[in-house]
């Protein structure tokens, strides 16, 4: 077999695998529309006298700019005061401790059952804090809100009735976005998250497939947590890990897309990349930890296949990076192939990938409001696909880290409490850690420019739109990473 055959066969195989994940994305879209009217309903509604006692856990680590906003919102929750306990799980090492203590004291004066719990060591990070608080909890249920979230007053009362069914372990609300319109970056993040919360979570939950607790804006039955083995910090996505373990034990989880709990999106590209790195690394760790036993277990085939695509979805980034690295030799060695090859193989598979992504995120724009298609939406969708490609190095490193290393350090995402466009996060204390990924992105930009030049010289015009999209994504992620760091 010649070198050209090896290159083209490897490139085509990777493209086919990526297309397989794209077809799965189309299946999610079909399931979403097919089951769109089959929303979950409570088995029955509690009366005021029978409402279960709820412990609200607020895991916090160095969140001085947002913690007071969170505590104010939690203090306004509309739930019987004698059936509500609040735990401020504060592992902070900076001024956040003092802010928490002062606000907790104010809330105590409102007769709230609230406790400021501080650990000297962050053993187990967020999972360790949640487990520590659970040992002290008085409630039957536990609601969890991260520091950057602002739960509306009626959040608990809207969600708690679903626990009237004894087999329900967890109820998850949809994330909203406090600062969606702050910048182009926050708009793209909101669109990306909406695709997950509108299409993926709804599709999986309504078809009986496994789906995940998102770490916040949800309520758990404490007995279900214990039955599933409790909070564990063997991965950096303890929420995904616990969700799968509970569902493998036979517990049921419910997703409520009509209940929104807004949160703050990361302001800077490096913080966003750090967050995405943790999520990709964690899902890879969970796949390595749980997927083999899940596939061997006695579950229906559609649940196993959905779990496989769910837990390995971030492997797409690694495949994409390999495809990008092969793109230059592919342009050199593809010359012997005819134009029919491009039209009937390369172009259709590439278009399937693009169409599935565009359709996936268009759903989130249409739900629940009826959004009119515009050039702004088209631009955002184009940039979103570009950012997904631009993240391929960052996410590929995360996937490899999750599969090959046992590092379980939890790196939190800095939040600044900035909502309005006239506010600035530049002078805030918390910033994402610097790393060497932008240098790799710069090298990839040079590599793609050379690839585009060769494709143009060899008259491979079908490849040019996709190569330009790849380059756009890397230019955007690299430039923001460097500019915002400076």
Automatic annotation (TrEMBL):
CDD domains: CESA_CaSu_A2. GO terms for biological process: cell wall organization. Keywords: Cell wall biogenesis/degradation, Glycosyltransferase, Golgi apparatus, Membrane, Transferase, Transmembrane, Transmembrane helix. The keyword Transmembrane applies. The chain crosses the membrane at residues 12-33, 314-333, 339-363, 436-456, 462-483. SUPFAM superfamilies: Nucleotide-diphospho-sugar transferases (SSF53448). It is found in: Golgi apparatus membrane. It is a multi-pass membrane protein. GO terms for molecular function: glycosyltransferase activity. Signal peptide: none annotated. This is Glycosyltransferase.
């Amino acid at each position: 077999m010649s070198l050209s055959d090896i290159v083209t066969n490897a490139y085509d195989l990777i493209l086919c695998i990526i297309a397989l994940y794209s077809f799965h994305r189309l299946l999610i879209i079909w399931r979403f529309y097919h089951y769109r009217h089959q929303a979950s309903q409570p088995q029955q509604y509690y009366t005021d006298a029978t409402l279960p006692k709820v412990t609200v856990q607020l895991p916090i680590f160095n969140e001085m700019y947002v913690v007071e906003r969170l505590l104010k919102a939690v203090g306004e929750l509309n739930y019987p005061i004698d059936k509500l306990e609040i735990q401020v799980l504060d592992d902070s090492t900076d001024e956040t401790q003092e802010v928490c203590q002062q606000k907790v004291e104010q809330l105590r004066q409102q007769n709230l059952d609230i406790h400021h719990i501080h650990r000297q060591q962050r053993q187990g990070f967020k999972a360790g804090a949640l487990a520590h608080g659970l040992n002290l909890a008085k409630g039957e249920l536990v609601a969890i809100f991260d520091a950057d979230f602002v739960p509306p007053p009626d959040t608990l009362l809207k969600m708690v009735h679903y626990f009237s069914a004894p087999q329900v372990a967890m109820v998850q609300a949809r994330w909203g976005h406090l600062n969606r319109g702050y910048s182009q970056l926050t708009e793209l993040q909101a669109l990306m998250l909406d695709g997950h919360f509108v299409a993926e979570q709804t599709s999986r939950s309504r078809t009986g497939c496994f789906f995940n607790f998102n770490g916040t804006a949800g309520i758990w039955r404490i007995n279900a947590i214990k039955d599933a083995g409790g909070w564990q910090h063997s991965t950096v996505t303890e929420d995904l890990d616990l969700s799968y373990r509970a569902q493998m034990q036979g517990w049921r989880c419910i997703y409520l897309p009509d209940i929104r709990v807004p949160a703050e999106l990361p302001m800077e590209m490096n913080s966003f990349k750090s967050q995405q790195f943790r999520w990709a690394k964690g899902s890879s760790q969970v796949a390595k930890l749980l997927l083999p036993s899940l596939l061997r277990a006695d579950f229906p085939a559609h649940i196993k296949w959905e779990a496989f695509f769910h837990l390995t979805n971030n492997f797409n980034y690694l495949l994409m990076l390999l495809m990008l690295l092969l793109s230059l030799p592919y342009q050199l060695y593809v010359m012997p192939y005819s134009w029919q090859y491009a039209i009937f193989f390369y172009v259709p598979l590439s278009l399937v990938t693009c169409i599935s992504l565009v359709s996936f995120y268009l759903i989130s724009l249409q739900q629940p409001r009826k959004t009119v298609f515009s050039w702004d939406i088209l631009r955002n969708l184009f940039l979103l696909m570009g950012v997904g490609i631009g993240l391929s190095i960052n996410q590929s490193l995360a996937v490899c880290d999750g599969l090959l290393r046992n590092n379980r350090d939890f790196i939190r995402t800095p939040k600044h409490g900035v909502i309005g466009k006239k506010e600035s996060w530049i002078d805030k204390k918390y910033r994402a850690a610097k790393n060497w990924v932008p240098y790799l992105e710069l090298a990839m930009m040079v590599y793609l420019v050379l690839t585009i030049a060769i494709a143009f010289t060899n008259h491979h015009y079908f490849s040019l739109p996709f190569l330009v999209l790849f380059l756009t994504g890397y230019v955007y992620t690299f430039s923001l990473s460097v500019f915002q760091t400076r």
